[in-house]
Design goal:
The structure holds 2 protein chains of 2 kinds.
Chain A (H helix, E strand, L loop, with lengths): L2 E6 L3 H13 L4 E7 L2 H10 L4 E4 L8 H11 L7 E6 L4 H10 L3 E4 L4 H8 L6
Parallel strand pairs in A: 1-2, 1-3, 3-4, 4-5
Helix pairs in contact in A: 2-3
Chain B lengths: L3 H20 L3 E3 L11 E9 L2 E10 H12 L9 H27 L3 E2 L3 E4 L12 E9 L3 E11 L3
Antiparallel strand pairs in B: 1-6, 2-3, 2-4, 2-5, 3-7, 6-7
Classes of the chains: A alpha/beta, B alpha+beta.
Amino acid sequence: MLNSLMIVDDSATMRKIISRVVEMSGLVFGRMEEASSGTEALEKLQAAPVDVVLCDINMPEMSGSELVRRVREELPKCNGTKIIMVSAESCQDRIENLMAAGADGYITKPFTPEKFQQELAKFVTV
Amino acid sequence: MLTETCLKNVLLDSVREVFETMVFMDIEEAAEPCMAVNGNVLLSSITFKGRLEGCIGICCTEACACQIASNMIGIDPDNNITSEHIYDAIGEIINMVMGKVEMRLEGDYGPLKASIPSVTTGLELRSNLGNRAQRYNVLLNLEDMHTISLSLICRENDV
């Protein structure tokens, strides 16, 4: 069975760019969802969990770190969902805090298809 | 304070990495600008705070920003590119440049807290950092098709 993926970013352009680079990575997903906010992501995940979430950090209304916390606390059906943060921030302390809050991986922008392949292959059936 | 040469190299290395990875275009310091940066120009900027504070900006023509957005998204610049794509793409460029600058300066200045990027029309990055601030400007050629103006204004803090 093919894996499912959700891209969470408030920028529609960034969602397109990430989606393109995921396709370029050669990984195939049976279902690709998008959410433009943490709230929309929570609603969609509640309705239908995915295998992997690619999540921005700096979003209005709900930050990526808040979304990670809420998925882990409020959505037990997403226990198996891996959350990979995608951000230009590269401060090691912030990355460690996100991992401690429940994120499973971190991809720093700018990114290459190879970087996505490397990070996603840890969690999906290739 | 890091020397002007060191800060300039940090900026240039960061910009090169972002453009080569995400825009798939070479960018180099311009001995001679290949195009004038005037007319309809966009300024994408971001501010940062910490032991070093200031702002970074890139200024380019709308045509250049359209080419950048087109390459990043992978769609034809003559069709389907919207203003939203263009503004988002060059906002994201300065956001990534900031991330790379922070990574390269973290050893000297510790973590920096960056703002959300903003994109406006305009030509010159200005700040209210006062007389202690240093300013660096450099012109870059994007594959001899477009010229981009890159600016950094910064000052050290005792924080």
